[in-house]
Specification:
alpha/beta; Rossmann fold; 7-stranded mixed beta sheet; 10 helices; 20% strand; methyltransferase activity; Methyltransferase type 12
């Protein structure tokens, strides 16, 4: 994501240097990764699968998918050099590239039409123009490739704004974005009710205090209390309903449309 599509205060190297461990421990991230992996295990269980993680962060998604689909090939593209370096250490057999989709370098050219399946998880809320971003990702997907997108729904917290969220989505709004970017919508879901919503409400209630804690380094997933709370929510997330109108985690599955 370049300055043309994200605010200039978005520093993803600093983000991953600061939040890498907390993100790995985050029960919401684990919930999303399990949802994505359950889908991919069903639709891409073969050696021919080429799976692209668009906005691969620090590689946690690819690490999980590689364990479940060891015969598939994986590539992650990520704006942050720090994120890519962490990812390479986690999954040495996967390909990770530092890439700005709006200014792609020559190293991306060999991967035109490469991906049979793609994931774009918790990325579009950070982008000023999600439609343009997805259009820029399209060339790296094979004809008919399927993509799962996850984005936050529900109200925005002070911490969300602190880490650069521009907007949150509904099932209808993410479907419009994907359609405008040239994808055919297959299904949309609102997942996570009721306990993911409760988790989000705790973050919202914490407000600016959570931002202050993180800025001061007093909480980044390291404290005993924070780890205990995360374990409690990981347990509770097992009892979330699969898809309701009320879940604050929004998921869409789409297919690259014919030209």
């Amino acid at each position: 994501m370049s300055d043309s599509t994200t605010a200039k205060h978005d520093d993803w190297d600093t983000h991953w240097d600061r939040y890498a461990e907390a993100a790995t421990l985050n029960p919401a991230q684990r919930m999303r990764h399990e949802y994505v992996s359950d889908w991919l295990v069903k639709v891409a269980p073969n050696k021919e699968a080429h799976i692209l993680d668009i906005g691969s962060g620090q590689g946690d998604m690819v690490r999980l998918l590689h364990l479940l689909l060891p015969d598939a090939q994986f590539m992650g593209i990520e704006l942050s050099e720090s994120g890519v370096e962490i990812s390479k250490r986690k999954v040495p057999s996967a390909k990770f590239l530092v890439a700005d989709l709006f200014h792609p370098g020559a190293d991306l050219l060999p991967y035109t039409g490469w991906a049979t399946h793609a994931v774009c998880s918790e990325v579009l809320e950070h982008v000023d123009d999600p439609v343009a971003f997805l259009r820029q990702a399209q060339p790296y997907l094979a004809q008919g490739a399927r993509i799962m997108v996850t984005v936050p729904g529900g109200p925005m917290s002070a911490f969300d704004r602190h880490i650069g969220h521009r907007q949150h989505f509904t099932r209808e709004s993410i479907a419009r974005v994907l359609s405008a970017a040239g994808f055919q919508i297959e299904e949309t879901h609102s997942i996570g009710f009721p306990f993911f919503n409760l988790y989000r409400l705790t973050v919202i209630a914490r407000g600016e205090k959570l931002v202050d804690d993180i800025r001061s380094g007093s909480t980044a997933g390291h404290s005993g209390l924070a780890k205990f709370v995360m374990k409690v929510f990981r347990f509770l997330f097992r009892f979330n309903l699969p898809s309701t109108p009320f879940g604050w985690q929004v998921v869409a599955i789409a297919r690259k449309a014919s030209p």
